[in-house]
UniProtKB/TrEMBL annotation:
UniProt keyword Metal-binding present: yes
Organism, as annotated: Helicobacter brantae
Coiled coil: none
Cross-referenced PROSITE patterns: 4FE4S_FER_1, 4FE4S_FER_2
InterPro entries: 4Fe4S_Fe-S-bd, 4Fe4S_Fe_S_CS, ET_IronSulfur_Cluster-Binding
Gene3D superfamilies for this protein: 3.30.70.20
Sequence ranges assigned to domain 4Fe-4S ferredoxin-type in this UniProt record: 58-89, 90-119
Single Gene Ontology MF annotation: 4 iron, 4 sulfur cluster binding
Protein name: Formate dehydrogenase
NCBIfam families: FDH3_beta (NF038355)
Length: 208
């Protein structure tokens, strides 16, 4: 795990997720794509769509939530066995073989990202599972073991996470802080431009 860093060394190049609630249409394409791509078991949801002000006309908005890969990750701080590690690009990952399923990370995470499978009828926890930004885990890249424990490693292939790739309205963005910020700035500046047949909302996504 030599691919770690000190938080103080990091800048805006770290990876980020951003969900534009003005574009999210609550289609659940992102969470379904995540479950399908990583073959997640029933009850494990690395990504979920939350609707705010549900049923209130004019105020209802939806947002897609997962692990935000925090620069000062509280999950890593409370883990008693230090199973978390942070890559040089800012992706927060963990080692399932080290995890003891204590649940401290779940209590510490403000986004409810850590997920725990129920191993029996009494609800005892198995090893924690969470969003990996589609970057796999500590096992050998693209190995059968990595796929089994963590799912696809799209980052190693130069691809964005599958949830962002499958977002039909490009509400969900994933990339470096600089890239995501540039897209948001462009969209803000372009708001209101375009024609009814080609709305501004389709004019920019990952440089397209």
């Amino acid at each position: 795990m030599s691919d770690t860093y000190n938080i103080s060394d990091f800048d805006s190049s770290r990876v980020k997720f951003y969900c534009d609630e003005n574009r999210c249409i609550d289609c659940h394409g992102c969470d379904v794509a995540c479950k399908e791509a990583h073959h997640l078991p029933v009850g494990i949801n690395r990504r979920r769509v939350v609707t705010l002000n549900d049923g209130i006309e004019g105020k209802e908005k939806s947002v897609s939530i997962a692990c935000m890969h925090c620069s000062d990750a509280p999950c890593a701080k409370v883990c008693p066995v230090n199973c978390f590690y942070i890559r040089a690009d800012g992706i927060v990952l963990h080692d399932k073989k080290t995890c003891i399923g204590c649940g401290y990370c779940l209590y510490a995470c403000p986004f409810g990202a850590p997920q725990f499978p129920k191993s029996d009828v009494f609800g005892s926890r198995g090893a924690m599972d969470k969003c990996t930004f589609c970057a796999g885990g500590p096992e050998e890249t693209h190995s059968a073991e990595e796929m089994k424990l963590y799912g696809q490693n799209r980052i190693a292939e130069g691809k964005v996470p599958v949830c962002a790739a499958m977002c039909s309205t490009k509400a969900l963005l994933a990339g470096s802080g600089k890239e995501v910020s540039a897209i948001i700035t462009y969209r803000s500046a372009a708001k209101g431009s375009g024609t009814p047949s080609i709305p501004y909302s389709w004019s920019k996504a990952y440089g397209g």
